[in-house]
Structures are given as C-alpha cells and as structure tokens.
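Researcher: Structure for this, please.
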Amino acid sequence: MKALDVMVRDVVTVKPDDQVAEAVRLLAEHDVSALPVVDRNENVVGVISEADLLHREEIGTEKHRQWWLEAVTPASTLAGEFAKSHGRRVEEVMSTDVVFAAEDTPLGEIATILERHRIKRVPILRSGKLVGIVSRSNLIQALASSRAPASGGAGVDADRKIRSTLLDQLGHQDWTGFGQRNVIVNSGIVHLWGLVGSQEEHKALVALAEGVPGVVSVSDEMIPAY
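Model: Predicted structure, token format:
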C-alpha cells in the first residue's frame, strides 16, 4: 500500500496570517496534533503543531533560564523562543522545516519518516500542493484493515478506484463531514473509520459505501459520538 491508499484528503489547514488562537481552536475541535500552513496559492509553507504551542505565556509555560545560562544562549535562540511563546500569528509560531512525502510513497517509508523525525503526521504533496495527510493512526487503520486478498477479490487498482469514488461522493454530501475521517479499501472491502455524530449519519455512510460499484462489503469501524 502507498500513501494515496490511506491518506485523508479533506485536510484542515491554516494560513500564515491566521491568529494562533484560531489554530489552537482547530487543533482542539478536530482532535489533531498538527495543521499544515498553506499560502494563498495552496503551497505548504509550514506546520503548526502541539510542540510549537507547548511554551505559551497565556498559561505560564514559557521558558525561563537562570541569568548566566541566558547570557550564553545565542540571541537567535532566545528570539525564536520568544516568538513561540508570545506570537499572535501562525507564521510567528509555525515550523518551516516541513517534512513531507508524495502520494506514491510506500507505507513502509511513511512509517520510517514518522519515526525518524518523531512526528505524528506527514503532509502528502503533489507538485508542492497539499493533497492529503497520513498520520500514525492511519497506518494503524491500514494494519487493522489488512487481510489476505480473497480469491477473485478486487486488486489494488480496483480498490483505489472504489476509494476515490467514495471519497468524491462524500465530498458532495452536505449532511456529513466524514471526508476528514478515513476510508481504507482492501480487496473490495470498505473500512470506514472515524467519529459520526448521529445514528442517521451512521446509517447513511454505510449505505453510501455499499452503493459504490465494486464494493464487496462494508466493515463498519466507526465510533458513534451520540
């Protein structure tokens, strides 16, 4: 499997000139650990994560050093720390050293990237544009969804077509925001992962998946939030 087989396409993002308070709200509201930062042309220019927001003056967690240690700390380091703890705009706080991957990156390489850089999610880019994101939880979902292909089951190309069709259909539904959750297809079996807000939405998502051509069955892995 590759990044395109498990990535979440409907990615929550922020702009460089957005307020940090707005980024914090989105992190909490969507229960994610980081947000890609995109410019007006949708190019990824940074990432703002939980780690960037650990030391904030609002909650008294900004860094304090003894005077002699501060005296030998480079001014650039002190300035960066001040921006992290007092900055009001995303561009003042975000990390600009962005680790990313392409759609055709094997999941084995994605796992290595996450481990090597000690990050929880990696943006997926196409020609510099954000097309998705893969998190540690998406890899666990892929592992839980994996099984030996059934005899006569769908192949990789057929699975990708099913997934693409289903995600496109989800994007046109006003009654759900499930596009921010995840869908994994293995041997024609659609695995639906994520929170749903009502019994009606739950039933409708299963029905929508069952109606996609080529679907063998639907594995309901969703968690009701009602």
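Researcher: Any notable elements?
Model: The longest helix spans residues 156-171. The CA atoms of residues 172 and 222 lie 20 Å apart.
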